[in-house]
Amino acid sequence: MAAPKRGRSASAQSKPGRSLALILIAIAALTGGMFASGNTTPRLGIDLAGGTSITLKAKADQGSAINQANMNTAVEIMNRRVNGLGVSEAEVQTQGKDHIIVNIPKGTNSKEAQQQVGTTAKLYFRPVLTSEPSGAAASPSPSSSASPSGSGSPSPSSSASSKEKASSPSSASPTATATSQGRAVTDGLKADATPSSSASAKSSASPSPSASSSAPSSAADKTAARLQAQYTALDCTKAADRAKAGTSAKPGESTVACGQIRKVWYKYLLGPAAVDGTDVKKAQAVFGTQNTVGWQVQMTFTGGGSKKFADITGQLAKNQGVQKEFAIVLDGDVVSSPNVDQAITGGQAEISGSFTQQEAQSLANMLSYGALPLSFKEDTVTTVTAALGGEQLHAGLLAGAIGLALVVIYLVIYYRGLSLVAMASLLVSAILTYVIMSLLGPAINFALNLPAVCGAIVAIGITADSFIVYFERIRDEIREGRTLRPAVERAWPRARRTVLVSDFVSFLAAAVLFIVTVGKVQGFAFTLGLTTVLDVVVVFFFTKPLMTLLARRRFFANGHKWSGLDPKSLGAKPPLRRTRRPAGPAAGSVDPKEA
């Protein structure tokens, strides 16, 4: 009789070391990446690190639509706001289609942060009274300072030639950029753009408000002195100064502000807002090929905005030097300060300069957002102290340790030697979970919060359940009278199907929970889904190959009483034997009894 054929299954069974080597290499690579990146611990969420968590819900108004582009722009602006408070680890991210989560770590005033992120971004066009490089980049001469009335002369470093230009798209040719000249304020701007007035502009080494030819009122004199003191003391290279600049100014008042141009910080003294951001109907970044080659931002104003913009640009075109500029101010920061060489009418304008595509698109987005802002209402505001978060984490870890200990005790008592396989598999799963969580922190801003810890604890039971299903299938095969090696292989297809169905249901529940929930509950869903996927990986690439190798060892193969696979204790049947049936009478023969 020919020997039975041994197919691919037998060949695969003889090389379980490949699967073990593969998962061990993956663990080594992920661990090496974790240490190489410097992120050796998972990023802690706001409830563990302490701080303030604010959930905002967007609502459509003023013709604006809640879409991904508007939500991303809102996140960018809110991120600038929160970081302007001096917070280095603040997180602003979208959740779902209409929610934004703002997590502000400890050390920040929660009320101030709530006000910063809960209000809609404000965009204004303000005339520039004077500006100069700030901090280490500045080299001003005594005459470079200017009072709010505009007296004084600019420093060479504040030449308008380094800024963008604003012009009408219908211009026949590019306009020339103005050079640095005396900083006089025109009669039209003096009445409403400066806190004090002067009959004539003249250069003066002393920028005091008293330099004007007409005596200002006491209130205007105090306002001018206060603004001059703010402007002189302002150092835009410092984040704290930038956060405070112009925070209390109203749209109809002059103010100070900061802006960055070609990686150099400038400080500005600005007049009252002449055009509001809501007067911009549309803004887009385009690549110019006719009058001005390069990236530029085209703006379209509303009916009322067109008149306002024409009036202010007509006044600015009459000025000299830096006072030919208007500043685009978003949340107190100057994002652009183009020159104006002529009155811009027709309701359209373009800002040109040495823009990159990203810079032009960013400016266009900010202008558009100012024109069509999204309103937000607070859904929840949670303040957690670091001590409370640490206590909760300690309690969560204690609960996880107790649960893990109970699982291990059960495995040792009931499965004996097989418990080593289960504990080794749990260890591999824990290592993979920890390393991946550490890497996901900087990669996708994943933060380990208390619900995520709960998800990891629940995953212990899910992972142990997969091992138990496989072990019980092997025991069933042994009870049928089979030896361990064939029992391991015959039990695997049935156990694999059960494990996949069970894990699929768990993953589906985690996915649905992640989609329909907002905020911290998503941490639970994400961790549950991650550990469910890792359970499949560990069972397929570690538990099954390890069982195949152990089935070749005498301790397990001979059914030692401490192996957990003793045939006698399992109530195994005697080995199956094939018996021959007696041959029946030949055809045509007669039974002797009948004869």
How does the SSE layout of this entry go?
Elements lengths: L7 H6 L3 H21 L8 H4 L1 E9 L8 H17 L6 E5 L3 E7 L4 H9 L4 E11 L31 E3 L19 H7 L24 H16 L5 H6 L10 E7 L2 E7 L4 E2 L3 E9 L5 E8 L1 H14 L9 E5 L2 E4 L2 E2 L7 E8 L1 H15 L3 E10 L1 H30 L2 H27 L5 H30 L4 H33 L4 H30 L3 H4 L9 H4 L25
Parallel strand pairs: 5-13, 6-12
Antiparallel strand pairs: 1-3, 1-15, 2-3, 4-7, 4-8, 4-11, 5-14, 6-7, 9-10, 10-14, 11-12
Helix pairs in contact: 2-12, 2-15, 11-12, 11-13, 12-13, 12-15, 13-14, 13-15, 14-15
Reported for the largest beta sheet, the result is: 5 strands, mixed, barrel
- Strand composition percent: 15-25%
Mean pLDDT: 75
Q: What's the alpha carbon Rg, rounded to whole Å?
A: 37 Å
Shape type? elongated
Number of DSSP E strands: 15
Work out the helix count: 17
Strand order across the largest sheet? 4-7-6-12-11
Low-confidence stretches: 1-12, 137-162, 170-216
Structural class: alpha+beta
Q: Roughly what percent helix?
A: 40-55%
Distance between the termini: 39 Å
Describe what you observe in this structure.
By secondary structure, the chain is an alpha+beta fold. It is built from 17 helices and 15 strands. It has helices spanning 8-13, 17-37, 46-49, 68-84, 110-118, 187-193, 218-233, 239-244, 303-316, 357-371, 386-415, 418-444, 450-479, 484-516, 521-550, 554-557, 567-570; strands spanning 51-59, 91-95, 99-105, 123-133, 165-167, 255-261, 264-270, 275-276, 280-288, 294-301, 326-330, 333-336, 339-340, 348-355, 375-384. Strands 4-7-6-12-11 form a 5-stranded mixed barrel. Strands 9-10-14-5-13 form a 5-stranded mixed β-sheet. A 4-stranded antiparallel β-sheet has the order 2-3-1-15. The chain is elongated. Mean pLDDT is 75; it is low at 1-12, 137-162 and 170-216.
